[in-house]
Amino acid sequence: MALLTDELRARIGETRAYTAPEPLSAASMRYYALAVGDANPLYIDRGAARAAGWRDVIAPPTLLCDSNQYLADAERDEDGFAGHSWDIAPPDCRLVRGGNTYVFHKPAHPDDVVTVVWRLVDLAERVNGAGHAMLIVTSEATVADADGDPILTNTETVIHIALGKAS
Amino acid sequence: MTHPTIPPVGSELPVLRRTITLTDMIAYAGSTWDWHRLHYDPDYLARRGLPAPVVDGQFFGALLVAQAQDFFGGQAFVRSLHFRFANLVFAGDTVECTMRVTAVETRGSLVVATLAASVGVGGDHARVAVAPAGLQVELR
């Protein structure tokens, strides 16, 4: 059974845009820095951030790569997940993460109201070394500020692996 | 502005070692608005044959940026980071992030350091968690 159907192939290039309902906030930035154990003063001390040339504290760079805060409608699915999803779920597969590439254009600040545009870059089918078919989903999220200036780009790969072996 | 000392190509940065507890994972899930049950729900994990809550892979991105930013200082700007996942990491595992300078070049007023990185898990079930990985850091 092909994992990459014509119906799915037709979706390559699809985009979804989300605009955060409020500014990022210094509290969100401090919460993330605390959670990952990063005590860098650039994220919590305005004086330190200004001394480094920024107008205010900056967000830990990876915060906006992984946060779902920008979603106004954070509705949880049955897995408890409330982030962006393409709702691509081939039957009888398990999902693993492949990897990410982040490119940072400029830091985010507490007053930034971000817009995130997701693009379905590619869908590809392969067979792994163990003989299982895989559907490789490549997506790109571009995070921009209210003026449309890009903050970062996150390209990520997730892989749906068939539970049975390819025939 | 003076550049921090740039170590020569081949130099290893100080290793970042971190035990990631379930409490850390709950804090991370909250701070990223990611409530996926993979990261904390014992019933959900048992049904999938997983031995313990799974650490969110993007947590390692945060650790790698922290490792580089702490080393190069406040004037450094992490321009890019890439990583591939090799094996799952579970609550209670201790990870070691290693980072090595692979290139240093001057671009106008910037010095750009390229680093190769990896994340491993030690102990009885030692394994690679993240590799290959790499960063580019700009020093203003």
Explain how this protein is built.
Chain A is an alpha+beta fold. Chain A has a single domain (6-165), classed as Thiol Ester Dehydrase, Chain A, CATH 3.10.129. Helix content of chain A is 14%, strand content 35%. In chain A, strands 1-3-4-5-2 form a five-stranded antiparallel sheet, with no helix packed on it. The termini of chain A are close together. In chain A, 31% of the residues are buried. The mean pLDDT of chain A is 96. Chain B has 140 residues and is of the alpha+beta class. Chain B has helices at 22-31, 42-47, 58-72, and strands at residues 16-19, 76-85, 94-107, 110-121, 127-139. Classes of the chains: A alpha+beta (167), B alpha+beta (140). Chain A binds chain B through residues 28, 31-32, 34-38, 40-42, 48, 51-53, 60-63, 65-69, 71, 74, 76, 79-83, 96-104, 107, and chain B through 18, 24, 27-28, 30-38, 41, 44, 56-59, 61-63, 65-66, 69-70, 74-75, 77-85, 140. Strand 2 of chain A pairs antiparallel with strand 2 of chain B.
Question: Which residue ranges of chain B are poorly predicted, with pLDDT under 50 across at least 5 consecutive positions?
Answer: none
Which structural class is indicated by helix and strand composition of chain A? alpha+beta
CATH architecture of chain A: Roll
| Rg over alpha carbons of chain A | 19 Å
Whole-number total of structural domains of chain A: 1
**Large-scale geometry of chain B:** elongated
Terminus-to-terminus distance of chain B: 7 Å
Could you give the order of the helices and strands of chain A?
A: HEHHHEEEE
Strands of the biggest beta sheet of chain B: in what spatial order? Answer: 1-3-4-5-2
Taking strands numbered 1, 2, ... along the chain, how are they ordered across the largest sheet of chain A? 1-3-4-5-2
Structural class of chain B: alpha+beta
Annotation field: number of helices of chain A: 4
What fraction strand of chain B?
A: 35-45%
Biggest sheet record of chain B:
5 strands, antiparallel
Helix % of chain A is 10-25%
Main sheet overview of chain A? 5 strands, antiparallel
Cα-to-Cα separation, first versus last residue of chain A: 8 Å
- DSSP strand tally of chain A: 5
Largest interface: A-B, 42 and 38 residues
